[in-house]
Amino acid sequence: MGNIIIFGPPGAGKGTQANNAVNEFNLFKVSTGDILRNEIDKKTKFGEIIKLKIDQGLFVDDKIINRLIEDILKNKDNHNRLIFDGYPRNLNQAKTLNLLLSKYGQKIDLVLKLSVSLETIKKRISERLSLEKRADDSEDIAIKRYNTYEKSTEPVIDFYKKLNLLKVIDGEMSIDQINKEISDIINLI
Fold first, then answer.
1. What does residue 53 show for φ and ψ, rounded to 5 degrees?
2. Residue 133 pLDDT greater than 90, yes or no
3. Interatomic CA distance for residues 147 and 142, integer angstroms
4. What sign has the CA pseudo-torsion 43, 49, 50, 53?
5. Distance in angstroms (rounded) separating the CA atoms of residues 144 and 1
6. pLDDT tens digits, 9-28
């Protein structure tokens, strides 16, 4: 196995697909969203800063994220079996991730991008609102986060494309269809 990154705008289904890959391939999921929500739930000073950023539809500072990621990379039980969901979000984080992975004798083997339209994201967010209320779920915040995501991750996607690691998945398909396509791709690495 190897390390995988999954990209897609907020609401694209990255978490669902990452969870499917975790179960099918015995991977360890590194979800910055989960890590950050955990910090918020602990109600630490650190968590308060994170909550403020997320509630405004902004991304959390790279230094905070990178420190949390390095703590996970240090754990030898997870070496070369990580799936990153929601990280890296920008080119600086991508380069830092490569340096940190190298420091711990690892690398990225595959980068998946779920390609989903803003209209589909808005529909999914409204469906999710009726099921579970998350502080970062509202249409206005979703639109802002989608636009911020597209702008900030474009250079990251190009970075991994140039490294010949990128596979684009049609995120408009059903969950099962997306899962099958991802499984087929992971089986090739």
1. -60, -50
2. no
3. 9
4. positive
5. 36
6. 888 889 899 999 999 999 99
Percent of the chain with pLDDT over 90: 57
Host H or E run for residue 37: helix 32-41
In contact, 128 and 11? CB cutoff 8 Å? yes
Alpha carbons 67 and 19: distance in angstroms, whole number = 23
Helix (H, G, I), strand (E, B) or coil at 6: strand
In Å, what is the CA distance from 173 to each residue of 53, 130, 169?
Answer: 31, 22, 9
Query: Which CB contacts under 8 angstroms, 24+ apart, belong to 38-43?
Result: 39/68
Residues 88 and 104: their CA atoms lie apart, in Å, by: 17
Domain ranges of the chain: 3-180
Q: Residue 144: what pLDDT?
A: 86
- Angle separating helix axes 91-103 and 139-162, nearest 10 degrees: 60
Tokens of 49: 């800063």
CATH of 3-180, one of 1.50.10.10, 3.40.718.10, 3.40.50.300, 3.30.43.10: 3.40.50.300
Give yes or no for a contact between 101 and 3, defined as CB atoms under 8 angstroms apart.
yes
What Cα–Cα distance (Å) separates residue 16 from each residue in 19, 31, 185? Answer: 5, 11, 17
3-state DSSP call for residue 9? coil
